[in-house]
Queue: 2 jobs
Job 1
Amino acid sequence: MESDQYGMHISRKFNDELETLRNDVLRMGGLVEQHLERAIEAIIAGDSEMGLSVASEDYKINELEVSIDEECSRILATRSPAAADLRLIVAVIKTITDLERIGDEAQRIGNLAAQLATDIRPHDHYSELKILAEHVQSMLHDSLDVFSRLDTKDALVIVEEDKLVDEEYDQITRQCISLMMEDTRTIRRFMDMSWVARSLERIGDHAQNIAEYVIYMVHGRDIRHVRLEEIKKEIGAT
Amino acid sequence: MSRVWTLLLLKHGAVIVAGVAVGALYGYPIHGLLLALACLVVWHLFNLHRLERWLQEPKRVMPPGGDGVWARVFARMQFLTDRARLARRRFRSLVKELRASTKAFPDGGIILNDRCEIINFNKAARTLLGLKKKADRGKRIDNLIRNPSFVEYLESDQRKRRESVEIHAPGTGDKWLSCRLIPYGPDQSLLLIRDITQTVRMEAMRRDFVANASHELRSPLTVIAGYLGALAEDENAPATWAQPITEMQEQADRMSRLVRDLLELSRLECGVSSAMDQAVDIAAMLASAKKEILAENESTKRIDIEVTSDARVLGEESEIQSVVSNLVSNAVRYTPADGSIVIRWDVDDAGGHLSVADTGIGIAEDDIPRVTERFFRADPGRARQQGGTGLGLAIVKYALKRHDASLEIRSKLGEGSSFICHFSPRRLAASSQKIE
């Protein structure tokens, strides 16, 4: 599938509008990626200032969401798009919601980073969190790449990858629980840590959603809550 | 007419004459003529057929020999196709060489059109940015590299664009990339991407070292200064110690100023451009700087302030403050008692200009590019007595860099110097404008 499928309208202006819409979503995605990256860096480096600055800049993402949402409604109202165009608009509306939620999670991680920075840092500098965070970051990055390339094969890879993230999250939770039982004075710190892991796991879910919307956008098939094997068979056939 | 054509016409004439003669022999000259013409047509058709077949499959069918004018046509044709084949082969090997050389190029290169769509890229670009060989041609580069500072760099006006932008490599990994956009031709541009991870890491190490070392020096200094203060006030101390103690106090003072400047410098050096959330009132700042200087020095130096604009600079107030105070205190330090200092703030289309001009000792032309280096001394003996730390202008440089501003230095030895800070228009706000 080429992005050129949106370049075949008689109205040139409509083409431009759809193209701009896609660009805006990806621009918002870039901002979200940056926020997540900084929030994670704040956790790992124990930089409370950076954590708070991420938390305070969440409004930029929200503003973008609102403006893209408005643009979508405008296109729906004035162009009454059909087929692939309609799917694009629907996918965009859903994608920005997920992106905004990722922004919220990044904001939460930023706040937690500021809190954790005041506490004693563990010897391993949150290495498990770092691994999980890197995984989630690459998932988000790949899902946005998939959105820009409309590459459904890679989208399926992301959908599968989410299982790994869930496993890593379970591991961190178990580890936190056992450490809390060992020393009750650390409960607060490990609670915060498990909250961060929870947020990261949620971000993984949102990234998975975005990948699913891309499959919907390209194939017109809603693959949520459908077994992966079936989808693979179906998409492989088309 | 060339010989071949004469020969050809003669041959045709001979065949026709022979045909008519043979026909006349049997009493049918017209039939003889027709037969001769048919023979000629067959001969031509046969040659045309051979030519056509050879042209269809030049590799498999041997080039026709032929004779007369057809031989010439065939030979010429052969020559042309051979030449074309040679040129094509040469061109192909040239392209191959070029491809190989761009492949070997360690820096990533991406060719973009005027809509920022990818036309082509080399292997290094593929590995550095994670591009896909076929799928990404025609895609917009800012859809794939979504880093906000990169997108801003890409969209900025060509004339006001910074030279390059440093970004984290897309995806995870701790790679740092330096991207530079070079326009060429009517509507294309080349995006150069360099891996600067090593440089960034070294720079960070150096910065950390300076910051840590200065930080570690601070606590012992505080202790020393504290005891020296106590000793200076101790009435039981022998009088002979008074002079050394004052001197030690002065040196400790200087050292703590040095440490403070080093710490500030290492903070400024991190290079990120500062936030634009504060509107700094330059006019008010200049007035208070003048007041401060006059309170400290009871000299006869004249300080004039000329403010023609009430525009404000968007940025960090404390950093602009340190720019102003460093420039003004430098001017005071290097201007003789009967000299004068003019501080000017004006705004035009090119942006805001803050200039501090003095009639002091000036800077030699060779030294001008170097005065913003750390600890650079034009005259090592003199400057230290004047009480500077040697870091003032370095602080000014980095603080301005964080505000997208540049420092211009005009100076003549013995006549005075002027330091001009150029702020870009997008960093300015009218005084009445509200800042969100």
Job 2
Amino acid sequence: MSDEEIAISVRDLVVGFGKRTVIDHLSLDVRAGEIIGLVGASGGGKSVLMRTLIGLLPKRGGEIEFRDRRNGAGRRGVLFQQGALFSALNARQNIQLPLRESAHLSPGLLDEIANAKLEMVGLTAEDGDKFPSELSGGMTKRVALARALALDPALLFLDEPTSGLDPIAAGEFDALIKTLQRTLRFTVFMITHDLNSLAAVCNRVAALADGKIVALGPLSAVLASDHPWVRAYFHGARAQMLHLGSN
Amino acid sequence: MVGILVLRELGVLIVAIMVAGRSGSAYTAELGSMKMREEIDALSTMGLDPIAVLILPRVAALVIALPILTFIGSMAGLYGGGIVAQFYGDMAPAVYVQRLHEAVSITSFKVGILKAPFMALVIGIVACGEGLRVQGSAESLGKQTTTSVVKSIFLVIVLDGLFAVFFASIGM
């Protein structure tokens, strides 16, 4: 079954700074075509894990293997927490930058692609002329998503895509990710604190505590986990308010 | 005296210090805020080398601009010297120009202008290096910018001293 194909295989990964080990012999398989959500305590190493996967941080030991053999494999899109749009370029140029650097395309074609990507994430062509400082939080995230999708990646990394958005915008963004994922069939690795997005978007949830994955599976399975941190996370007062913990 | 001093030492030194203060700090702040907003990480994930895309053009621009600025600065210095000579020394402009002509050789000019690209290199590398060292906070950005300016002004003066030794030993 193609759904069971592994996109990223992580084995015994160790990452640390100085004397502190942040990721401690972590193993995780990400299946091709799924949306996997990573939860964990603040400062618990979620971003570190993602940055190691992307190749921004060196690993101390273990293996990371990208196995996706489909078309476009190896191309990765990353959505950073604050968008990380280049402030000197407008939205359209931001989307075009990865394209411009990897292929020689005519300016007309570049504009067409950028406009198509803008439309894909629910923005208009006029928004493309705005600079990052003129964009709202939600729009910044959308432009950053469009940029991450510019090269039609097989693998998309999202760092807290809904943080800093109001519930309506966050819900829309969740829906957008889900729709795009369903249409374009890429794999999504997403860090999130948003319990709603976990429930609405993710096929599987991985809980990171003490540098290891302590629970992995569909949300219902993770909810049933009896690891103390996972219980505290999902069955705490804030989770109760969303009636997540009650079932 | 004014001519030699301005062309050999003062012109390039003052210009370099000013550039370290205004462009160096701008570089550090610019790269530092890019670092803070993860823009540099974003560049790396796109397969672009931040050093090639962000640092080389900036350093190259300084290397080109600083000699030109040194030239303009030296000319302004000589002009200022002329005005002072006229009002405080009662020296007619024509006499000043003639004296200047006798005192100044092309060597003084060359010594000054030769130093400029090296100073630009130092300022650029220090400024960009400090910019990339910025950590997540605004406080760190301020600290690194200060460090950048202090360090590059210090290094520029040290470099000027080294050049003086060097030029003396080759007899220029």
